[in-house]
Amino acid sequence: MSISQLSLTDFRNLQSITLDFHPTINLISGDNGSGKTSLLEAIFILCQARSFRTHHLKRTIQHDKNGFLLFGRFNDYKAGLSKTADKFDIRVNGEAIKRRSILVNKTPINIVNTDSLDLITGSPQQRRQYLDWCMFHVEQSYNQHWQKYQHALKQRNKLLKSRKDLKLLEYWDDYLINPSIVLQAYRENYCGEIEQQVKSELSELLQDVNIGLKYLQGWHSSMSLKESLNKNRERDIRSGFTNTGIHRDNIQILADGYPAADVLSRGQLKRLSLALLIAALKILKQKSGRQLILLVDDLRAEMDGLAQERVYESLLAIGLQLFITNIEPHVPEAIKGKDFKMFHVEHGMIKTRKFS
Ligand SMILES: Nc1ncnc2c1ncn2[C@@H]1O[C@H](COP(=O)(O)OP(=O)(O)O)[C@@H](O)[C@H]1O
Ligand SMILES: [Mg+2]
Q: Which pLDDT score is estimated for 208?
């Protein structure tokens, strides 16, 4: 879905306001510290019920206020969130929901910012989350398998920690193995598709570097998961948790056959991280046909002009709802001649800007 309207009250430094957005391109300008990232954060929270900037949502409540209110109109639903120091209320179409995933499922949203590089240089968990995000929104059964897997892993770890009823381990092993096989097959498959997309469609962004993605399973490649769990049982009991499994899977990102994080320049890494994200967005859009939101925070500070234009061209071709921040009211070449909306933020005050 795309968001057509946002109302915010007592959120970060922003003055309470209702904004109508453009269905495809929204450009946001303003000096450093004016509140641009905060506006993107409000949109993100309305889709995800969490922030990309802090684990403590209460930090986003305006200083000296009791709580924030966010309200969003999407194509076919309305979302309302209210957060005080000790309460977080999520409503969809006016009804309180208990499970965050009901909201999260509705509108896929992602962000490009200075942290995007972590996809390559960060921990394996970040790469798994990247793949999982894409599959979560495309494959209806993915979430069910994921829940089963999480449940089995939790129970198994509980047993290992307590060291009681260890004979039940075998039982939980089977529960762990079944969803693992399905989830891993999905992940491997998507990994291959992303690699294909990057190679075929995004090679210009990467210039002459030959990119490869290699899926590495979280246990020895010569063994089945069952064999690995059996072999590591003593070790698992000693450490009190499950040492091998798909929670240890990794995606190795290679540039000309070498680990990309070790050999590429920072500029190349930035372009590669964007290419990977664009590939995932494309696959998500193609497979699900869903409307997606992408927030692009200060790309100009991150990338040279030509590379930026390539990024915008690719993004526009996918057909997303874009929110793009920049310090100056800059209109990328790729966007000129298209219909868009522009906003300007000054000391927390957001104004719709006329552009000619
Ligand atoms: N909870 C809050 N209440 C009030 N102001 C805040 C809060 N959190 C951050 N700020 C302030 O909001 C301002 C805007 O931040 P930000 O959105 O990151 O600006 P920009 O992205 O335009 O550089 C910062 O000056 C920051 O100090
Ligand atoms: Mg910012």
A: 82
Ligand located closest to 34 CA: 1
Which tens digit of pLDDT belongs to each residue from 101-110? 899 999 999 9
What residue ranges define each of the domains in the chain, with the CATH number in brackets?
122-264 (1.20.1050.90)
Closest ligand 1 atom, residue 34 Cα: 22
Secondary structure letter of residue 59 according to DSSP: G
Residue 74 and residue 3 in contact, taking contact as beta carbons nearer than 8 Å: yes
pLDDT of residue 202: 82
- Report the relative pairing of strands 258-259 and 293-297 from DSSP bridges: unpaired
Q: Whose CA is nearest to atom 25 of ligand 1?
A: 33
Ligand 1, residues at Cβ distance < 6 Å: 12-13, 30, 32-38, 59-63
Q: Quick one: pLDDT band at residue 3, thresholds 50, 70, 90?
A: very high
Other C-beta atoms closer than 10 Å to the C-beta of 257 total: 8
- For ligand 1, atom 18, name the residue with the nearest CA: 37
CA 12 to ligand 1 centroid distance, Å: 6
